[in-house]
Amino acid sequence: MKKIALVGCGRILDRHIEAIGTARDLEIALVCDTDEAKARQTSERLGVPYVTDYHRIRGVDVAAVLTPSGNHPQHAAEIAECTDTPYVLCEKPISLTLREAYQLFARIDQAGKVLLPVYQNRYNPLVTFTKELIDSGRLGKIHQFICNVLWNRNNDYFKIDWHGTRELDGGVLYTQASHYVDMVHYFFGDVVEHKGIGGSLRGLEVFDSVAAAMSFKSGTVGTINATVSTYRANYRTEFTLIAEKGTLRLAGTNLNTIEFWDVQGLEKPNIDFTLDHVYGKGHDTLYQYIAAARWDMFPSRKDVLSGIRLMEMLSY
């Protein structure tokens, strides 16, 4: 039985609690938050001890860092250095700058621990299917992609203390669209050229809207358009892929629906990709990999650093 400590009792906490509950041989053993009221409430709810200082974490196999984005590198590194926890799971993004990301990996390595970055959309069934289709060569040369993340985060969301700040949030590419930045790295490899334009149209310290174009070593070109300023509610997430031997369009929650399919020699797959959670089901798979000690299923260091590099270049 692997023991998990949850560090940070904020917005994403419940998704991790639910996901851990789907995996065999995992249990939540400890919770931590600097706000003692939050820590105590979560502790009582789960029936586990709490601490308000993560330096006091002991006797767990994995510490999951669920704190504000800009705090991730400090918190993950110090947990690795100051506790006996061998694996540090860190919610996206692992940092807001490339320099911090390199420093984090170096400190984790020096402590003899392992960093497990959270990019759960990789594990959503249709994303996995598309990755396998690209890698199979059935689509031939990949020419172009268009990825649109057209969401809403209302003014109340940005009243939460760290949201929308340059120091801790990073903007739409980091806090909302980082999974799709990671996805294009997952699909196509290294970015060799990019250009982005961002807008702070709502008076935030960071970009609430970004339009970016990029090219990859393979020759593939594409765009990511991301916003949190659609009217009233999330509009859609969509990904169109144009290849030598086919065109397909994915949409829906975390890309769980095939809206268009025209692929040479392949019928549209009759597979149920339904997701019944706003975050998708990727966290479930992630924790199942932890239970099975499948550390190889987490994103590579190279992919993570490349993604942070792109987000930083387009956001700051």
Can you tell me about this structure?
The chain has 9 helices and 13 strands. The chain is an alpha/beta fold. The chain folds into 2 domains: 117 residues, 3-Layer(aba) Sandwich (Rossmann fold); 195 residues, 2-Layer Sandwich (Dihydrodipicolinate Reductase, domain 2), CATH 3.30.360.10. Strands 8-9-10-7-11-12-13 form a 7-stranded mixed sheet. It is globular and about 55 Å long.
Task: Write a concise keyword list for the protein shown above.
Rossmann fold, alpha/beta, 9 helices, 2 domains, single chain, Dihydrodipicolinate Reductase, domain 2, 26% strand, seven-stranded mixed sheet, 316 residues
Mean pLDDT: 94
**Low-pLDDT residue spans:** none
And the CATH topology of the largest domain? Answer: Dihydrodipicolinate Reductase, domain 2
Terminal-residue CA separation: 43 Å
Structural classification: alpha/beta
CA radius of gyration is 19 Å
CATH superfamily of the largest domain: Dihydrodipicolinate Reductase, domain 2
Number of helices: 9
Helix content: 25-40%
Major sheet: order of its strands?
A: 8-9-10-7-11-12-13
The number of strands is: 13
- Count of individual domains: 2
Named at the architecture level, the CATH assignment of the largest domain is: 2-Layer Sandwich
Which CATH top level class of the largest domain fits? Alpha Beta
